[in-house]
What does this fold into?
Amino acid sequence: MSVRNLNKLFAPRSVALVGASNRPGSLGATLLHNLVTGGFGGAIYPVNPKHTELAGLPVVASVAELAAAPDLAVICTPPETVPAIIRQLGEKGTRAAIVLSAGLADARDERGRSLKQAMLDAAHPYLLRILGPNSAGLLAPAIKLNASVANSGALPGRIAFVSQSGALMTGVLDRARSRGIGFSHFIALGDSGDVDLGDVLDYLASDGATGSILLYVEHLRYARKFMSAARAAARSKPTLVLKAGRAGGAERAAASESGALASMDDVFDAAIRRAGMLRVFTTEQLFAAVETLAHAKPLHGERLAIVANGAGPGVLAFDALVCGGGTAAALAPQTLGSLAALLPAGARANPVNLHGDAEPERYRQALELLLRDPNTDAVLVVHAPTANVDSADIARTIAPLAKGASRNVLSCWLGGDSVAGAREIASNAGMPTFDTPEDAVAGFLQIVHYRQNQNLLMQVPPSVSSIAASERGTARALVREALAAGRYLLSDPETKAILRAYGMSLVETRAAGTVDEAVAAARGIGFPVAVKILSPDVMHKSDVGGVALDLDSEAAVRAAAQRVRKRLQEMRPDARFEGFSVQAMARRPEGHELILGAATDPVFGPVILFGQGGIAVQVADDHAVALPPLNAVLARDMIDRTRVARLLAGYRNRPPSDMDAIVATLVQVSRLVCDIPEIVELDINPLLADANGAIVLDARMRLALADRSGSTLDRLAIRPYPRELEERIDFGGAPLLLRPVRPEDGPAHLRFFDALTPDDVRYRMFVRIRELNPSQLARFTQIDYDREMAFIATRSGPDGLPETLGVGRVVADPDNVSAEFAVTVRSDLKGHGLGKILMQKLIDYCRLRGTREIVGEALPQNNRIIGLVKKLGFEVFPAGEEGVRKFRLVLR
It folds into this structure.
């Protein structure tokens, strides 16, 4: 990921148009017209050897003849000319270009390279950034730049629209203009030869002119880069995604049910959720969500109260809420009592019916009551125009109340011209405003879903037991042994041996090659047992009569083994027979059959699947997908997104299942696929769960040789916890662990913060803070290991709980050129050398990553840190009016 020179692309002070023309309908003519008529204040340099003047501007014949290097070049010449033009621009000093020319990926140069690659090779020595090829251009309305093929400009605003489709540009711009929606940037990526979604997200996340980001996505190539940038962007501003291709193409081949169930769209949806973004499904929803989120206040709950001037509109809104999975507010008794004095009988429940003659004051009183209701988190006001009441008067009356409320107030004004004034008043007051009750409820649910995704980023998960290094080694050895023997599809007993190493509860299972061995295995396990066929060619053993249950004697086992073998030969004569799996019968009559598994997505890599299991798993189609690594919070969220979660919670006389056991199994599956890259598919079906725990009954696994061309972690869309950076040291005669921070460190981090003196907090944050709020805590402990690192010094405290003694943190820019550090040591441990230990750990880490320099700053009163960095070779110099000290260490 890199934002290098993107300021020249998105905020240029001068533009050269290579291929400028006056031929009607040509790209060169369209671009020149848009650049000139758009009002761009910088210099415009047309380049074309056939002209001396175009649109009143002097024209030069070539890039070499330009009087000065333009910040940005726009190229619309034939494909074969583009690489040479890029090289000339780089030599001239230009550092950004938009290439509208198409066909570069298919055409070849004299060296056999694609013209696209030749273009990138020409740009590389100069760090010249390229938008395109095959881009439709970009617009930056704040500087009146229209370097695009759009037939109209864009209004200025705070929304950035990034699209992988140039064809979508014209329609979206026209629609946005008609609704008064403005943009900070409008960017058509084209083929993303250089600048891609990840780069643009990194730039926009820190762009002060951008308040929210909209993405239109058709495909992704670099999932790791995209996820890292998306998570960073979504933490700072609302980021919404419209994804095309939901229906997908042909199903990919899979040797497991998990692989068959985890569709590409499921995986993309999981990625968006994990990043804290909001996914929408139409362009209309995209802009509606922008309007809603732009005006939304913090949402502390999901209960919506509806008030309308008629039963019909209110019920339509209520139906849309319930059918959309929303929660209707159950009004408190005191609210119902107050409404009784205001309204006729039968109109006092949610939705509240004010009746058609409702005047502005009745609206105001009802809204006031609902906003005070302790069971209400947001209110939707629905109004249909009537002859006796002016809609604008109602809007003017409720606007101050809505503006001053701590809860969200949404409004719906049914009708056309007669309610246009009311819509404008409500919108100006900060109320999200909609045309229909259904749209209004959809807008509210967008707030709910967005906040749910954001809240997921801020949850502090409880600790889940770790896997000993020796056990991980056992699992790896079993995988290597299978691959060495050429076994890529592992049987149930082989898979269970690997799962056992990761601490999962398993029904005792033994493999048997013959009928006699099956009888001996059953005798060793103890009766009753189950006997199942082993064949790598049969996914569902029950389909070929390959399962026999409740066998309570040796004779029964012998007969059953012979029977299932014979059925396999009759029903699938082509299937390979590898023996029998003999299992102890799991007596859990109240157990729920679940499926846990893993698959490999071609873009996002390993994914985890959870849902309702058993033989009807694909018919039930009740599953959730998530990207690893998982923690307990993310695992529980997966469970909650399935229908079977309601059964697991208990019903009638069936007690709730042991959710902690299911969560732990999910987390261990996640760790397994993160640790062992050779695992490409895994099925645990069923996992039998009840009040007494969760136990694996059947499992199978598919392996593949891992790609050793790069890091084994590169296949993961999100970098997992970097265990290799852990280090044990001696500190004052006692062991101390230096390791990267984990989300589970939240409680210890709070205790660490509470142990700091007010001055230490001020030295660290430059302001006085009495306590950490949940978002701050999540920001400190739930980090993206790809772009920042926080090392903690930790040990077990006197109460047996882990305690954090110090934290060293470093955050690198997207180009890994400069990294900013901060070090904090618990106040009662200062002066013992822990700060130096943490600082050296950060320096070593940055050297390992290839970071060029480490920088930092401190208040002038913070003598300890100033003295420490001087000893470590930092340059220290004053900066700013308040005497802040800046630090810099060049890493060689």
